[in-house]
Amino acid sequence: MIQQDKDNYKEELEHSINYLENLGYQNIKADIEGFESPKSFLKKGSNIVITPDIVAEKEGRKYLFDLSLKSVKPKLLKSKWLFLNTLSQIKSYRFRLITKRGHYKFSDEITSAINLDTVRIIKL
User: Fold this and answer.
1) Could you state, in order of their start, the residue ranges of all structural domains in the chain?
2) Is residue 4's pLDDT more than 80?
3) Spatial CA neighbour of 61 closest among 97, 105, 24
4) CATH level 2 (architecture), domain 3-123
5) What is the DSSP track for the chain?
6) Interval 24-63: pLDDT, tens
7) Residues 62 and 94 sit within 8 Å (Cβ to Cβ)
C-alpha cells in the first residue's frame, strides 16, 4: 500500500496484523501507530520513501508483507512491489501480499503485469 492510501486502509492493516499474530508470527513491525516502524528505503534521485507495511519473523525467517488494495497510483505500487521482491530475494527474506475480498482481481492483475507470479497472495 502506498503512503497516500494508509489513512483509508488503517483498519485493514490492523486486521492483517492480528491475522499474522494468530498464525504465529513474532517481532512484528508495522507502519502504524503502536508498533515499531520497519526500515525505510529512500529512492535515489527523488524523495520517494519505500516502507514495507508489515515485517515479521516466523521460525527464524524474516517476512515482508504489503497490503494489496486498490490504489489511485498503481504505477507507484508496482515499483514498490518490485523493489520489495528484489530486496527479499537478495536478503533471503520472504515477500507476501495480503489482500481482501474485492481486491483480489486487482492484486492478481498487477502481479501478472510485472511478472511477480511467484509471490504468494494471502486472502483475508
Assistant:
1) 3-123
2) no
3) 24
4) 3-Layer(aba) Sandwich (3.40)
5) --GGGTTTTHHHHHHHHHHHHHTT-EEEEESSTTSPPPPPEEPTTS--EE--SEEEEETTEEEEEEE----S-HHHHHHHHHHHHHHHHHHT-EEEEEE-TTSHHHHHHHHHHTT-TTSEEEE-
6) 999 999 988 889 999 999 988 888 889 999 999 999 999 9
7) yes
What is the DSSP code string of 6-38?
A: TTTTHHHHHHHHHHHHHTT-EEEEESSTTSPPP
What is the Cα–Cα distance from 42 to 102, expressed in whole angstroms? 31
Amino acid at 84: L
Q: Which residues of 82-115 are buried (b: 16+ CB within 10 A; e: fewer)?
A: eebbebbeeeebebbbbbbeebeebbeebbeeee
